Amino acid sequence: MLEFPPKRFDRALVTSLTDDEVSALPAVPDRRTWTGRRDRALLLVAIQTGLRTSELIGLTCNDVHLGTSVHVRCHGQGRKARITPLTAASVAALRIWITERTGEPATPLFPTRRGRKLGRDARGGPG
Predict the structure, then answer these.
(1) Looking at the domain assignment, is residue 36 inside a domain?
(2) Separation CA 89–CA 86 (nearest Å)
(3) Cβ contacts of 20 within 8 Å, gap of 6 or more
(4) Do 111 and 104 contact (CB within 8 A), yes or no?
(5) Number of structural domains in the chain
(6) In a domain, 69, yes or no
(7) Residue 127, pLDDT above cutoff 60
(8) 114 belongs to a structural domain
(9) What is the pLDDT of residues 35-92, one digit of tens each?
(10) What is the biggest distance separating any 2 CA atoms in the chain, rounded to whole angstroms?
């Protein structure tokens, strides 16, 4: 029986952000603009929860619970529900953002200026 040698390939090195980089990220968006306030809230939620891009842009206002037990609920891979508690900084940013944004509770939490769901490239997705 012939054996084939294993395929040789380079694996991409997966790295993570440093604490300083993580702290600096939410300060980047311009909070004087609507999109800057949206993006800051989005970054805080992303950093804290570790949600995938598709999970973040799929969140609706109904998925955020700011009552007694503050958390975000999302449906991840395999339609599994995941609940992640939120820190005070994320809660404060989300309270401000949810008050400012317009739309119904079932609409995207982080919409485009036209109220549509963000696409993976930060523009409006299909539809």
Answers:
(1) yes
(2) 8
(3) none
(4) no
(5) 1
(6) yes
(7) no
(8) no
(9) 999 999 999 999 989 888 889 999 999 999 998 889 999 887 777 888 999 999 999 9
(10) 69
